[in-house]
């Protein structure tokens, strides 16, 4: 039996249009380890798109871009980069962060695609350079040669393929309800030498089959139970993400509850894909009491260090609140007002 399960559930957006996929990686017992809200309509992360250059940004900091699907982005000027083409011209860019709410996609001129051990770089004229093991490098090269970025965004390495690559040496069961994607994932696993078994589920829910549907849905709830009886209240707003730590039924005291909260908060931010400014109200932090905050901050910092998004822990405010920032890539797993 595989130690890990990867579930890829096709998502249908409003109007019956293809809405990407819900992707969850879990361990035995149904514990979620990673989630990916794959939303190509919002600008799929790492996808390659052909953008049309719009007018310059006031102040000369860059130019506005029109992307496929009615999306927009701002391309910042880089001091050592070649001059930008004229307004109305088209150029290839890579999406680094999906759109969300009133926030535009974030894109870059440098296009680099990484697999398990191979790397593909694409020049401004579309020429690709690939380095790495022959089988994997050849697959990436063939995918790019068959791509038509002028017609649709190009996804050379699907998010599910990224997770297969990250766990290539571990027994991994992959459950997919999309037949063509299942075929693609098998080809990828073979090319990179991954110990993954891909199963196509024509009917049924891959998240349910993997035992991940319930923990996935729980990530939409504001309250999170902590070991010992404490809890977190997580409230994303338009300006920031507010997190309150509450002792609830935990009688061990503020220090223990705060440390338990500090251990869970990085995981919740990562699984929920919450980004931007995050403000945490630990127990007793704003009442002149230490509340075990020294140990909690060390625990929080350690957990944040394992996050690929590389959050920045800013420290405490005068009111005792703890602030951090987390870069945005994917949209939130459960946007405000959306039910799972």
Report a brief summary of the structure.
This protein has 340 residues and is an alpha+beta fold. The chain has helices at residues 134-146, 159-166, 179-192, 206-209, 213-218, 254-272, 293-305; strands spanning 4-12, 18-27, 31-38, 48-56, 62-66, 72-76, 90-97, 105-108, 111-114, 119-122, 128-131, 172-176, 196-200, 223-225, 231-236, 241-246, 276-281, 312-316, 322-326. The protein is built from 7 helices and 19 strands.
Describe it for me?
Keywords: Endonuclease, Hydrolase, Magnesium, Metal-binding, Nuclease, RNA-binding. GO terms for molecular function: endonuclease activity; hydrolase activity; metal ion binding; RNA binding; RNA nuclease activity. InterPro entries: RNA-bd_AU-1/RNase_E/G, RNase_E/G. The chain is α+β, with helices and mostly antiparallel strands and 340 residues long. The chain has a domain at 219-326. It is 23% helix and 33% strand. The chain has helices at residues 134-146, 159-166, 179-192, 206-209, 213-218, 254-272, 293-305, and strands at residues 4-12, 18-27, 31-38, 48-56, 62-66, 72-76, 90-97, 105-108, 111-114, 119-122, 128-131, 172-176, 196-200, 223-225, 231-236, 241-246, 276-281, 312-316, 322-326. The strands form four sheets. A six-stranded mixed sheet has the order 14-15-16-17-19-18, with helices on one face. A five-stranded mixed sheet has the order 3-2-1-12-13, sandwiched between helices. A hairpin with a 5-residue loop joins β14 (223-225) and β15 (231-236). α2 packs parallel to α3 and α6 (254-272) packs parallel to α7. The radius of gyration is 22 Å and the shape is globular. It starts with a strand and ends in a 14-residue tail after the last strand.
């Amino acid at each position: 039996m595989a130690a890990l399960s990867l579930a890829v559930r096709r998502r249908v957006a409003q109007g019956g249009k293809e809405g990407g996929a819900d992707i969850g990686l879990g361990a035995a017992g149904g514990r979620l380890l990673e989630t990916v809200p794959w939303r190509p309509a919002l600008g799929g992360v790492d996808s390659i798109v052909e953008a049309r250059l719009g007018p310059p940004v006031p102040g000369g900091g860059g130019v506005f871009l029109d992307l496929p699907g009615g999306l927009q982005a701002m391309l910042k000027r880089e001091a050592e980069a070649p001059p930008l083409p004229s307004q109305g011209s088209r150029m290839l860019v890579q999406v680094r962060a999906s759109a969300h709410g009133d926030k535009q996609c974030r894109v870059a001129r440098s296009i680099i695609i990484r697999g398990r051990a191979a790397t593909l770089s694409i020049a401004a004229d579309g020429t690709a350079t690939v380095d790495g093991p022959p089988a994997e490098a050849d697959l990436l090269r063939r995918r790019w040669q068959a791509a038509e970025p002028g017609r649709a965004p190009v996804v050379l390495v699907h998010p599910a393929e990224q997770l297969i690559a990250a766990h290539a040496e571990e027994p991994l069961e992959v459950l997919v309800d999309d037949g063509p994607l299942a075929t693609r994932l098998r080809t990828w696993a073979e090319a990179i030498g991954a110990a993954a078994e891909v199963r196509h589920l024509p009917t049924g829910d891959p998240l349910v089959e993997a035992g991940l549907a319930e923990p996935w849905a729980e990530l939409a709830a504001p309250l999170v139970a902590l070991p010992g009886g404490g809890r977190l209240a997580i409230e994303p707003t338009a300006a920031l993400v507010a997190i309150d730590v509450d002792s609830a039924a935990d009688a061990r005291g503020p220090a223990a509850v705060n440390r338990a909260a500090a251990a869970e908060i990085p995981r919740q931010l990562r699984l929920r894909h919450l980004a931007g400014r995050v403000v945490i109200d630990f127990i007793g932090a704003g009442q002149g009491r230490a509340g075990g905050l020294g140990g909690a901050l060390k625990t929080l910092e350690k957990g944040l260090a394992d996050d690929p998004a590389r959050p920045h822990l800013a420290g405490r405010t005068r009111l005792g609140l703890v602030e951090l920032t987390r870069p945005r890539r994917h949209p939130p797993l459960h946007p405000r007002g959306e039910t799972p």
